[in-house]
Amino acid sequence: MKKIAIIAFLLLVSVAAGRAQESRQDISISGMGLVEPFIASSTDVQVHSNAAYGALASYRFMLTPSSALEANYGITYQNKIHYYVNPNNYQILTRTQEVSAAYVRTFNFHKFNPFLEAGPGAFIFLPIRNSGTQSLDVKQQINIGAIYGGGIAYEISPSFDIRAEFRGWVTKVPTFAYTAFTTNKYYNIYNPVLGVAYHF
């Protein structure tokens, strides 16, 4: 009986040690860009902007070796969104934030690990109150939408990889709670991302 108990104990210790060495979580820090497309609406409002640059932090928890859940927070420094409302032009300096979650499917090929992801997101469009914003009637707006994307991770060590990804945001074009900016259209915002992940 003692031998069976000792063998069972050793098996449990071995399984626990194996799980402790298995990387099931990672965090990543990335630089990102936002490229918002030109929008022309049926309401005679036109929207265009310059590119925005910022940072993205992500946390992944592996459910299996090939699937994971991911949580993201991203923020841009600032960019200019231009609204043409015939016959007037308005410029809004904007800081954009992302809070999102996604399901990630990974395909393992030695050190190269392509992946696909999709999930819901909340996008916060925050007008910056300075001389670059030409309307003081605008307010912060939170839009609900979705993210999708695909990329590749290259393993540089058992603990680190480099990730390059092309993501998209799908959400309504912001109005900043100003009815004159209403387009009744959706954005498909392009979001290239490049960063480093740490596995633990």
Question: Would you write up a description of this structure?
Answer:
- The chain is mainly beta.
- It has one domain (24-199): Porin, CATH 2.40.160.20.
- It is built from 1 helix and 11 strands, in the order αβββββββββββ.
- It has one helix at 2-21; strands spanning 25-34, 39-40, 45-49, 52-64, 67-76, 79-85, 88-106, 112-127, 141-155, 160-172, 186-199.
Features:
1 helix, 11 strands, mainly beta, eight-stranded antiparallel β-barrel, Porin, 200 residues
Helix-strand layout with pairing:
Layout: H1 2-21, E1 25-34, E2 39-40, E3 45-49, E4 52-64, E5 67-76, E6 79-85, E7 88-106, E8 112-127, E9 141-155, E10 160-172, E11 186-199
Short description, anyone?
The protein has 200 residues and is mostly beta strands. It has one domain: Porin.
The coarse overall form would be: elongated
Strand order of the largest sheet: 1-4-5-7-8-9-10-11
Our estimate of the beta-strand percent is: over 45%
Straight-line distance between termini:
38 Å
Q: Report the CATH topology name.
A: Porin
Main β sheet profile = 8 strands, antiparallel, barrel
| Count of spatially separate domains | 1
Give the beta-strand count. Answer: 11
Q: Structural class given helices, strands, pairing?
A: mainly beta
Oligomer: single chain
Strand-and-helix sequence, N→C? HEEEEEEEEEEE
Count of helical stretches = 1
> At the first level of CATH, what is the class?
Mainly Beta
Helix content range of the residues, please?
10-25%
Radius of gyration: 22 Å
Low-pLDDT residue spans: 8-21
pLDDT average, as an integer?
89
CATH architecture level-2 label = Beta Barrel
